[in-house]
Design brief:
With about 110 residues, the protein is α+β, with helices and mostly antiparallel strands. The chain has a domain of about 70 residues. It contains two helices and six strands, in the order E-H-E-E-E-E-E-H. About 5% of the residues have low confidence. The protein binds zinc ion.
């Protein structure tokens, strides 16, 4: 993953004005660059974004590399419209490559 370098937070905001991000796990579009509200994946968790996220440095904030979900602006337009379609259909996407369902045990939505 390439690391982008920005001088300031403003420069970052200018490049990614939509503030929409793509979950590295389920591929849905989310508004939180670190946490997916669909599958609960965390870009700052143990597995980060397993190479499918976005790494950058904002110089005015020091040399720390930040890793977040991919901003939608980094996607090609045709890929992006496919993703938006996927997000809207509500269909089950391909399972995440690394995703543990162990925490809450078996899923029992019908009760
Ligand atoms: Zn997700």
């Amino acid at each position: 993953m390439k690391i982008e370098v920005f001088e300031t937070q403003r420069e970052f905001n200018n490049k990614f004005p939509s503030k929409f991000y793509i979950c590295s796990c389920c591929g849905k579009i989310v508004i939180d660059k670190y946490t997916c509200n669909y599958c609960g994946w965390r870009a700052d968790g143990l597995f980060k974004t397993f190479g499918k996220g976005y790494k950058f440095i904002i110089k005015e904030q020091g040399a720390d590399i930040q890793e977040i979900f991919k901003p939608v602006e980094t996607m090609k337009e045709d890929n992006l419209s496919k993703m938006i379609l996927n997000s809207n259909t509500g269909q089950e996407d391909a399972p995440c490559p690394i995703f543990f369902k162990g925490e809450e045990g078996e899923k029992d939505e019908r009760k």
